[in-house]
Amino acid sequence: MKNNNYLRLKTGYKCIIMIVCVIYGYCATGYSQLTMINTSFESAKTLSKGQLECMGDLSVYSETESHETYGESHETYGIGIIGLRLGYGFSNQFDIKLRYEIITSPIQYISISPRFSLMKDRIAGAVDIGRYSALYNYDEIGGATFISPRIAFTGYAGKNFDYTLTTRLCFVSEGLNDDMFWGLNLGLGLSSNPDKWVIRPEIAIVKDFSRFNEYTGLNLGLAFLLKFNTLKQKSAQKE
Questions:
Q1: CA atoms lying within 13 Å on the CB side of residue 217
Q2: Is the separation of the CB atoms in 225 and 41 below 8 Å?
Q3: Burial level of 88, CB count in 10 A (0-12/13-18/19+)?
């Protein structure tokens, strides 16, 4: 029975990696003034006290934007996104994560995300605070600041598999222009030892319903997470 489960997990990992690599390889790199990051690559389970998490992710993105005023629309496909994230558990119910993404150079994304448990391992709330920046010769030539509250709901199918639905609002300030986006993403977690490592494929959609334009972004990504305990096990369990 254990061998069968191991073979299923191994086959699933290979399929996910192959699909993402094929999509990424065939997508042509595009440019966007502001490509919204909507993935989270995490479940509602917060990090344990003293637990350190390291994540690397790879995503592809497509977006559509239409302007009602001018009757124009454009679509962009195959935007490549690659990033890193570090997280640390300050208690068994609260962690903070730092994330950095490169969105088809020169667009960059950085955020800090305090996160707290609302129902142990099942529901968690977080707030992403950060900035998109367009750089030229290491100088910022444009950018946007954002704050994005979100809530995640996680279910489990055994110890080695979880699924998470996350919804969010994102308030963006870009110079004199303010906008609000709504996002929804569905992610899976696959691992033979979730306390040590997890593979997380995810699909996400984000929409903007402003008065002058309608923006829709679709994101498909894959992340690999490693977790380390920086405190002794007995200390981590005291809370």
A1: 24
A2: yes
A3: middle
pLDDT digits (tens, 9 = 90+) for 99-155: 999 887 678 899 999 999 999 999 999 999 999 988 766 666 678 899 999 999 999
Chain-centroid distance of CA 225 in Å reads: 12
Contact 81, 62 (CB under 8 A): no
Q: Is 197 helix (H, G, I), strand (E, B) or coil?
A: strand
State the pLDDT confidence band at 41, using cuts at 50, 70 and 90: very high
Side-chain half-sphere exposure of 181, counting CA atoms within 13 A: 23
pTM recorded for the entire structure: 0.78
Q: If phi over 0 gives left and psi between -120 and 50 gives alpha, with beta otherwise, what is residue 18?
A: alpha
Q: Rounded to the nearest 5 degrees, what angle is found at the Cα of 70, between the Cα atoms of 68 and 74? A: 80
Phi–psi pair at 20, nearest 5 degrees: -65, -40
pLDDT for the residue 134: 80
* Alpha-carbon gap, residue 127 to 106, rounded angstroms: 25
Closest CA to 129 of 115, 142, 110: 110
Secondary structure (3-state) at 204: strand
Distance CA 113, CA 124 (A): 12
